[in-house]
Amino acid sequence: MAKQLMKGNEAIAEAAIQAGCRHFFGYPITPQNQIPEYMSRRMPQVSGCFLQAESEIAAINMVYGAAGAGARVMTSSSSPGIALKQEGISYIAGARLPAVIVNIVRGGPGLGGIQPAQSDYFQSTRGGGHGDYRTLVLAPASVQEAVELTQEAFDLADIYRIPVIVLGDGMIGQMMEPVEFGKYKKREVPDKEWASTGTEGKRKPNIINSLFIDPDDLEKENIKLMNTYEEIAKNETRAEITNAEDCEILIVAYGTTARIVKNVIKIGEKNGVKIGLIRPITLWPFPSETIAKYASQSSVNSVFSVELSTGQMVDDVKIAVNGVKPVYFYGRTGGVVPLPEEIYENVIKKTGGAK
Amino acid sequence: MTEKIIIAGFGGQGVMSLGQMIAYSGMTEGREVSWLPSYGPEMRGGTANCQVIVSDEPIAAPIISEADTVIAMNLPSLDKFEPRVKKGGNLFINSSLIERKANRDDINVHYIKANETAVELGNSKVAGMVVMGAYIKTTNVVKAETIIESLKKVLGEKKLDLIPINEKAVEEGSRQV
Questions:
Q1: Are the C-beta atoms of A116 and A32 separated by less than 8 Å?
Q2: Cis peptide, bond prior to residue A36, ω within 30 of zero
Q3: What value does the mean pLDDT of chain B take?
Q4: C-alpha to C-alpha distance for A46 and A283, rounded to whole angstroms
């Protein structure tokens, strides 16, 4: 198929349709409005259901219902809207249902602003709602990758029966880049034998539930979840590695920030400083082993986490590096996006540059 | 080849569409492209800008620190983005709406009577295409034919009658540089 020039938001919506998503429930918020807009136009063409709910809370509970009935279902929102959805996401995790949630992050806290941010890292990777659960978090850095990861998100959700979050920011939602559909190779997914679809008198009813009053039962459920999360961590952890072999400074950055860091690498080359980049593609599970491996190279004098926040992922980077090398942070927040030169200067200032 | 362009003006002047046409044309001609808009509550009369990169190589950051070209359609845009033109780069100033001259002497400055020319052609809405003509004549980033082809896609079949005046606007613009 020929390349198309598309906004990230539109591309995510089309990717969902092509992944077989036929149910979308949402509520408007900038900077992700092109997703529901696109869905409202496109869903009727594929006999799907687009519904603008009365609130974010209603939307996520519609997702819960559709997922329980075995549908491929998605919702999308931006930071404050995702915060409202957290109770529902916890229920979906507790009931072990597959669903895809897109968060096109804007600056916070509170209503914050509408410009790009990465300040929902904690919210996304630490569960976000109540209880002992995780969500698989995918962080695309280009519109093309947003397409492929959105398609894969549906397969991952089905394989592991968990909510999967596609975490973008305002920049990736709003920017246009060429995309090609049809590149993603579908993964094998199990039948949804657990879905509540009507018994036709032929089997026992399937019950979708996250309430387990007996502590022993609830512990069993939690252990099931824990085992699933361990399997995910083993099979699905992913990162892109650029220039990290024998680098002097190792930067960890995700999403669009990682692209800015790629320009920082070039500035380093001009100045004789070898900068490497590890870009986590899955934020949870976090690519700790990869980071530890590259950080422990004798050439590396320090590790940096660069984010559009006041420092969130840096905690995970510190855990991964485990004191082997000093870990520093640089970030801008509130919707401010740093330029490559600014990142470079701050990295050099902190680390003293090359050895 | 990597060309980094910032196009800025009032909302309603078509700066977003100009950028999209350049990006689309670059893609059609087999290049890597990115188009990053300013977004927010701006409407007609507010300020808007987009950053476009056309390159032979994969594009890292879609944001532009130093632009090869800045197109300023109004005064606030000139004030804001003139310092962002790299040394030896191009600055296009819509002299129909901007009275002041450029402050810098280390860049190539082009004064384009975008609105006057558009009105003379009979449709004030093609002011952006006048600047487009001047821009592609100067930089050769994409071909004029590709721009017109991409405009056909943008306009759709119902508005194909607008193509001739846009072609004229591009031609007139190319004469002003």
A1: no
A2: no
A3: 94
A4: 32
What are the chain B neighbours of A257 within 8 Å (beta carbons)?
none
Q: Is B118 on the interface with A (CB under 8 A)?
A: no
Q: Taking CB atoms and an 8 Å cutoff, what residues of chain B touch A170?
A: 39
Distance CA B125, CA B166 (A): 9
E strand or H helix that includes residue A275: strand A275-280
Find the CB nearest B60 among A170, A177, A262: A262
- A151 pLDDT band, cuts 50/70/90, is very high
A83–chain B nearest CA distance, Å: 21
Q: Note the pLDDT tens digit of each residue in A68-104.
A: 999 999 999 999 999 999 999 999 999 999 999 999 9
Please give the pLDDT value at position A353.
63
The residues pairing with B91 across neighbouring beta strands, listed in sequence order, are B70, B109
Give the β-pairing of A275-280 and A239-242: antiparallel
Residue in the block written with tokens 């507010």: B46
Q: In chain B, what residues touch A340 (CB-CB under 8 Å)?
A: 61, 65
For range A164-170, the mean pLDDT:
97
Has residue A35 got a pLDDT over 80?
A: yes
Interface residue B35 vs chain A (CB under 8 A): yes
For an interface test with B, the pick among A4, A9, A105, A177 (most B C-beta atoms closer than 10 Å) comes out as: A177
- Kindly report the CATH number assigned to the domain that includes residue B119: 3.40.920.10
Domains in chain B, number = 1
Residues of chain A whose C-beta is under 8 A from some C-beta in B? 3, 5, 30-31, 114-115, 170-171, 174-178, 256, 259-260, 262-263, 266, 337, 339-341
Please say if the pLDDT value at position A1 is more than 90. Answer: no
B50 is in which domain, residue-wise? Answer: 2-175
Could you tell me the domains of chain A?
Answer: 4-236 (3.40.50.970), 240-351 (3.40.50.920)
Q: Which of A175, A337, A341 sits opposite B35 (nearest CB)?
A: A175
- Exposure of A216 by Cβ count < 10 A (0-12 exposed, 13-18 middle, 19+ buried)? exposed
